[in-house]
Amino acid sequence: MKKIAIFASGTGSNARRLVEHFDGHTNVEIALIASNKADAPVLNMAQEYDIATFIFNKKEFYHTKIVIEKLAAAKIDFIVLAGFLWLVPKTIIEQYPKRIINLHPALLPKYGGKGMYGMRVHEAVRAANETETGITIHYVNEQYDEGDIIFRAHCPVAATDTPQQIAKKIQILEHQHLPIITEKLVQSMRV
């Protein structure tokens, strides 16, 4: 059984889609939901599905081995960042080379980097009068949103679309593609 950890900071709609996708899967399971926020709604969703959770603070994440030890104890093979806002430290990346992916709500390299997440991205897309946007799934490296791109999906942006309408289009793409791409990557991985 290959085990996935999801790192999330918020409500966890993409985490929920992953959990639903892998629920009852024969050889892949969501084994851990990790968060840097003790009050993140994603933790409640984990409870609904009886998935182990782990909450950590900035010091533990960046200056100790607690997170790596927790991942090892849970026998995690693969990590998905789904709405997780902190830059992953080199120590974790080195433990999981090409086994950590991030979902970004724009077509990278546009609208990526520190501070570009959630509605900020959609507001920037609207302000630039883009005619299309989309999602990018990429490997995580030591820079925000600069890892090798694995997959992109596009959607049109109408001149009348508000940032909220753009966000809804993006969420549809995220929910449609993240579970499928994650499954392909995990199934093809050698552990």
The CATH topology turns out to be Rossmann fold
By secondary-structure content and strand pairing, the structural class works out as alpha/beta
Q: What does the radius of gyration come to?
A: 16 Å
String of helices and strands: EHEHEHHEHEHEEH
Going by CATH, the architecture would be 3-Layer(aba) Sandwich
Unreliable runs, pLDDT <50, ≥5 residues? none
In short:
With 191 residues, the protein is of the alpha/beta class. It is 39% helix and 23% strand. The termini are close together.
What does this structure look like?
- This protein is an alpha/beta fold and 191 residues long.
- The protein has a single domain, classed as Rossmann fold.
- 39% of the residues lie in helices and 23% in strands.
- The chain is built from seven helices and seven strands; from the N terminus they run βαβαβααβαβαββα.
- Strands 3-2-1-4-5-6-7 form a seven-stranded mixed β-sheet, with helices on one face.
- Helix 1 packs parallel to helix 7 and helix 6 crosses helix 7.
- The longest helix is centred in the last third of the chain and has 26 residues, at 163-188.
- The radius of gyration is 16 Å and the shape is globular.
- 34% of the residues are buried.
- The model has no long low-confidence stretch (mean pLDDT 97).
